[in-house]
Each structure stands twice: as structure tokens, then as C-alpha cells.
Amino acid sequence: MKFALAGLVGRWLLLLGPWAVAGLYLLQTQPVSRAEDNLHAWLVDQISENLRHKRFPREITLPSGEAKPTVYTLEYTVDWDLQHEAERLLESYKPDYGALVVLNAETGKVKAIASFERTPTFNENLAIKATFPAASVFKMVTAAAAVDRYRFDPDAEIQFNGGNHTLYKRNVFNDNVNRWTRSVTLREAFARSLNTAFGRLAVERLEPQDIRDYALRFGFNRQITGDFKFESGYTDVPMEKSFQLAEIASGFNRVTKMSPIQGALMAAAIARGGEMPMPLIVERIQSEDGEVIGEAVPRVDHVVLSPEGVESMKALMRATVSSGTSRKAFRHLRRDAHFKDLEIGGKTGSLTGLSPKGRTDWFVGYAIGENNERLAIGAVTVHVNLWRVKSAVLAQSLVEKYFRQPLNWQFGRGSVGDEVSCKSAGCTNGKANDL
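Above: the chain sequence. Below: its structure as C-alpha cells.
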């Protein structure tokens, strides 16, 4: 009996409600028996429950009544050096809450997934919780609808009145051109995260259905499949062109929520040419006698963008790093000759959230090396009183660490899991605009 650690088990999705999960499919073509199906579900539950508590057990035991229990050995996709670095960064900066997810954008394999709470409140892995306001990260959805469906050029202009990071109804629906009217390109509006410009884009150039469609493609209001469970992102796009549509399209709302793992997957979809990969965290599962009964098989979860749409989105996301809201965080990396061939793109977001309560700060992005190695990152921090670190700074540190010593990372040292958490693994230790 051998499973591929990817695929969709539809009847289990119906029972899991807000959780996303891919079961462990048989590689063979014969029908799956009830016993095998039960084992699939049990393995997914065990992997997910341990991940929820930030544990990576090397072995899991299947009870079998009076008979001898069955022990399975797990090998993870996690790169433990990178995992420890992610944990070290969070421990060092100590945001009130924080989570980092790093994926191989091509395969969807999780390379690092770290979570931190300055004062334990949730005692769960924040990386898989979709309680964070998506904020301006949702501008990726709106921009994608424009450039992919309507071939809106990154250098096409949007006219608007009003401030950069505020959003008022009178400005969104103001068609008057006066001495205060500004004209910006989509590239600039995305890079600088201009709310009113995106509100105008939504009500002038797009239909509500466009935003609903692309939100679904990027993983909102649906279950993203993988080999572990995580909470689904959510949004509520109105049926009509209204101020609420402008709020949703610009990310200036508390309705739209997402998880760091979804953020990394959104970036991965751009980095790998428009296809969102299934997230995988288990490389293989072995029985007690050494038989490999399950292996990670990279698969596509959803086709998000056309090749043309991908190139336009990359242009927008590169501008965020080169001249936009995360330019300072990546400045020294751009100036370092070692990284001259490294392509980096991203999107920031910032908004006060309620769970966790505090100022939520995002960086969602990708990095593509000269050997075409593709990394995707979802980074979030929440700050209650003091702003301790920008999420883009954490993402930049992980990108630098990964690509500065490519041979060290390429071979993924230490992939067999021990029962570890941050401390047992030996880890060391303002108000912002709405972006």
C-alpha cells in the first residue's frame, strides 16, 4: 500500500468545514478501501494536530486495540537550518505575535513554518490560522483581475483625488478632474499601496464578479488542498459596484482574512508561472519494516493566472521591492553584488486586526535565483503597543540566508523530523499607515 501525499479527498472536505486538507491518495489505480480511507484521514489528522501545536514528531503511533500498535516514521520537507533561522528571527525581534512560512514555490514543499507569541494567548501555530486581516495583500487579487482578465497594462494610469492611504466614498466616486487630481500608474499604485487608486480601479474598470473570481483563484472562500489542514481565507465581495467593493478591492477592511500559509501560496502562484501548488510538509512515511507507504508528489492546486498575467504581476511586485513600501527592507540586498541576479517581488499590507488584537503587518513575496530556484514567503507580525519589526525585514533576512549559501540550502540538511519545537530545537533567541 503506497500513498501520494497530495490530492483531494472530497468527502472529507465536506466534514472539515473551514479546514483545507488533501488526503493521502493511493498511487495505484484500484479503488480505495474503507480501511485505507480511514488511514488516510487518520494520518492527515495526526500531521495536522502536531503542526497546530508546532511539533514535528519523527514517529506517530496508530493504536490497534489489544494488538501491537503500528508505528509510522515521518520525514518532513522542512529544511531545519532554515526553520531554525525563522524561529531565531522571531525570538530575536519578539513581536507580540508573528509567523513565517517559506515554501519551495515550484513544488509547494514547506521549507520553514514558524510561529511566535510574546505572551502566549493562542498557544497554536499562527502560520495556519486565517484570523489576520489581509489588508493590502488583497490588492494582489484586484491587480490580478485587471492585468489578467482585461490586460490592464502596469503602466496604464489611474486618476484619483484624496490621500495615499485613506479611503473615502467621496473620492472613490469622484469623476471630477481638478487641480488636486493625481494620475498614477497601476505599477506605482500597487508598489506604494494607494487605497483610493485601487478603489477607483475596482469601480471603474472591474466588475464585482471579477474580484470574486480571482479571490477564489488565490484561495479565498475555498479550501486549498495539501497534506495538512489549515484555515481557509475569507472575503465578502458585494454584488454591486459600491463603496464596500472599493473597501474590499483595496484591502481597507476587516472582513477579508487570510493565513500566512495562504500568503506564501499566493506568492508561489506568481513565482511558478500562474499555478498555485499544493502545500506539502511530509516528504515520506515509512512503516516499521522500512516500507515507504507514502511520498510527497507535487501537484497543482489551482490555475490562477495566464502567462501574460504572471509577467504583469511580477512587474508590479518587483516595484514594491525596488521603489515601493518594502524598498528599505530590501535595499542592502539589492545593492549586494552577490544577489545581482536574484529577482524579488512582494506585497505589503498593514491594518489593525482583532484576532490577534493589534497592528497587523504583512509581507507576501517571492525570490527567484539565477538557477531558477523559486522561494515563496508569507510573513506576518502583530504589534500591540510598540512596533518591533517590519515583516518585510524578516522576509528579507530569510531570502538572504537562503540564497547566500545555496549549496547549504539546496540539499536540505536534516530533513528527518525530530519531536521539536523552537526551544527544544536549539533556537536562540510607532504607528504605520494602512498599506
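Residues 35 and 417 are 27 Å apart (CA to CA).
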